[in-house]
Amino acid sequence: MSVTFNNASVDLSSLYSDPSANALALFFNFASGRCYHAADPLLDQLQVNEPQKSWTGHSWVTVNRFGFETASLGTNWAVDSFVKTLDDKSSVLDIGAGYGAISKAAIKSGAKVVSNDLALEHLLWLRGQVDVEEKTRLYLNTGRFPDLDIAPESLTHISAHRVFHFLSGSELELGLANCFKWLKPGGMFLGVAMSATHVRFRDAFYPEYEQRKDSGGRWPGEWLDVATHLPEQLHALPDKLHVFTPDKLADEVTKAGFTIAQSNFISLKQFGKSDEGRDGKEAVGFIAFKVPDPAASTRV
Ligand SMILES: C[S@@+](CC[C@H](N)C(=O)[O-])C[C@H]1O[C@@H](n2cnc3c(N)ncnc32)[C@H](O)[C@@H]1O
Predict the structure, then answer these.
(1) Is the Cβ atom of 115 under 6 angstroms away from ligand 1?
(2) I need a surface site. Which of 188, 191, 251, 281 has the fewest CB within 10 A?
(3) What are the chain's domains?
């Protein structure tokens, strides 16, 4: 059986016999940037293995060296605030969804969900976790944020949980502007990213961050060298990360036109080792809104 994606033909039989990273990578190349309806029976043919646990055993490792799945309900004020506003009238984009904890919660609320991630393997795992009816409301999108093909004002909610730290400052600026464009007026926006004051590199890196900020640097957290500051996680992370303070991230979100409702640290204590000394400042996050322009309704 062969299938056509982007005018090229893929022989799925090779994928069935070798449901490994290579076969999936091939499929991903054809699928790149496309959006799949999770109810498409074609996707039943692609097998995905259970994700690998991290070295602490508390999270799952991504297949593409983009960190760990840490989105969870009941331990993270930003995720909890976001999820409780969802219902069957919501249309949600989950950027960098990973194995899809936030997408799954959104689907369970009755919402329509576009789950976006670079790794199709992650999205296929999520697809395997939802039932037949839920698949009809789920779309799998393998585009690279910020360049996603999303219609303006088509979404009520956007989540970007632990993906901004993989972007340069200029990519983030474009991404925030796109999120503002994609949301309907009144829409809600959640963002969480790696903190510049994580205990593992607070003393070694934060003084440099402050220095760059004081000398007028627009992106003082660009970049943290992973081999130097988080060597034991290098196997599961890119070589460098863009780290933030709550205020810096909130400022950039405000510049993009959003109104911040809440901005603070987010604890990822439960994902570390008990002797690591985590203090609850491992990540930073915000909840923001695209507040409708009051003048818009009176304009002719
Ligand atoms: C640290 S994981 C976060 C997963 C999940 N959101 C969570 O917080 O548990 C980051 C995810 O973002 C995806 N990713 C990285 N850069 C991306 C980009 N530019 N566009 C879309 N996805 C991206 C990776 O494939 C990875 O699955």
Answers:
(1) no
(2) 251
(3) 1-31 (no CATH), 36-298 (3.40.50.150)
Q: Cis omega (within 30 of 0) on the bond before 223?
A: yes
- What local confidence, expressed as pLDDT, does residue 45 receive? 75
CA distance 32 to 21: 15
Q: If you measure from the C-alpha of residue 260 to the centroid of ligand 1, how many angstroms do you get, rounded to a whole number?
A: 23
**Closest C-alpha among 189, 196, 193, 194 to residue 260:** 189
- Pair 10, 34: CB distance under 8 Å: no
Say what the pLDDT of residue 136 is: 95
166 CA to middle of ligand 1, Å?
8
pLDDT reported for residue 275: 75
With the CA atoms of 185, 167, 272 and 246 taken in that order, what torsion angle do they form, in degrees rounded to the nearest 10? Answer: -50
For the chain, list residues with pLDDT below 70: 1-34, 294, 296-300
Residue 51 CB partners (closer than 8 Å, separation 6+): 60, 61, 63, 69, 99, 125
Closest ligand 1 atom to Cα of 117: 22
Q: Supply 159's token pair.
A: 């989540």
